[in-house]
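INFO  loader      accepted 1 record
INFO  loader      residues=268
INFO  predictor   begin
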Amino acid sequence: MSILQIVVLAIIQGITEFLPISSSAHLVLPSALLGWQDQGLAFDVAVHVGTLVAVIIYFSKDIRSLTVGWCNQTFAGNPSTEGRLAWLIVLATIPAGLAGLIFNDFVEENLRSLWVIAITTIVFGVLLGVADKYSSRQRAMEELNWRHALMIGVAQALALIPGTSRSGITLTTALALGFDRVSAASFSFLLSIPVILLSGGYKSIELMQLSNVPWGEIGLATLLSGITAYACIHVFLGWINRIGMMPFVWYRIFLGLLLIGLLWGGVV
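INFO  predictor   done
INFO  writer      dumping tokens
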């Protein structure tokens, strides 16, 4: 990979990992239009590590509280809001983990196409807009229960389908359940930690089996994706109540239609 390709794709991944706009659609476009080769396993691992570090650093205080609460509740029998929330994150992660183990090969072989990405980018964008428009937005994260967590977790499993957007589908479900935007986004970000950790860990095992690993490229991609992801989380949480979800919805519709137009025109 050239330096330009690493810089562009790492920044795109850092931005789109946590915004509800689908990272797969954005990584396809520059590669297809500029004729770049597939970024490969090493790059995937690098940007996963970068975005994971970013979300861990940003939510370090929350993670510390959740960890202490979980340990106290699990081993000392002292229930708390933090301990309960930690268990709900574990519960919500299970459907995505199982879906990845069962359906990952099927998705890779049958659904990783530009047409699928274009259609899901539009469809799940519209669903996000509907959920945001009609949500009561009255519930805070403290009101999350096991039913809510399980529903959000099952929805997160749909993110295996390219173009869905993991953050987009979890935000859509949380909003549809009546949670306010900041609570929905915060839970989505916290929920991303075990999912990215599992995905990145699985790919890291594959990476260790390779020879001639490009460590320089990995380091640069990790750094850029991490910095970009951290900035993206900060800006998104600060603006979400002011701008709502509609800018992302219209952007997704535009992006999906652009992909369809390029496909029909034989450009990609």
